Amino acid sequence: QKEVEQNSGPLSVPEGAIASLNCTYSDRGSQSFFWYRQYSGKSPELIMFIYSNGDKEDGRFTAQLNKASQYVSLLIRDSQPSDSATYLCAVERAGGTSYGKLTFGQGTILTVHP
Amino acid sequence: DADVTQTPRNRITKTGKRIMLECSQTKGHDRMYWYRQDPGLGLRLIYYSFDVKDINKGEISDGYSVSRQAQAKFSLSLESAIPNQTALYFCATSDFQGGSTDTQYFGPGTRLTVL
Fold first, then answer.
1. Distance, CA of A15 to CA of B55 (rounded, Å)
2. Could you read off the pLDDT tens digit of each residue along chain A, which spans 114 residues?
3. How many CA atoms lie within 13 A of A45 on its CB side?
4. What is the Cα–Cα distance from B51 to B48, expressed in whole angstroms?
5. Size of interface A-B (CB pairs under 8 A)
6. Cβ-defined contact of B90 to A43 (cutoff 8 Å)
7. Contact criterion met (CB < 8 Å) for B103 and A43
């Protein structure tokens, strides 16, 4: 089992729809969870992070965390063609020198079509 | 100017050559990281450094070495490049404050091709 696994893509949604990106992780000691967006040929850029169970909203983006199910998701409301990118889920383990060490999923390619 | 810079941005080299990739940052962060990205595999950690005197191996350090010349500079070397080291390499920095989430910021990447 991969440490961090994302839903296989590519994911295609129409403009204005909700895009749902999912990520599961295997280490129950994981503490913080990050969503990065990466446009083709560019570097990853942070969208948001979450570390408490529940939802966290930032504009059109909502991160959802369920530690009991070891599941984190990213919802993008009112999807726009400019949201078309690869979305990377990253997990930070808790404790000691694990702070700051991220394990990334393989990424999900999202395409928003007009 | 960019906060995290990488040089070169593109490099083509031959098997057996020694290659150095450089990373500089003006963010004042203590922590620096080197990742490689391959299609379908996400980002994998090669080496990381939490300060100038602290360097640690990541999950795929074989065939690589690093040098932390200063707080702002972290170099990655391929002692004898091989074709399966062809990848996109990213440097990242973070500013861990203790007991809280540590956000990483990425450089623009170096595309390395080993023939």
1. 45
2. 678 999 877 999 999 999 999 999 998 888 889 999 999 989 999 999 998 999 999 999 999 999 999 999 999 999 999 999 999 999 987 666 666 688 999 999 999 999
3. 9
4. 9
5. 55
6. yes
7. no
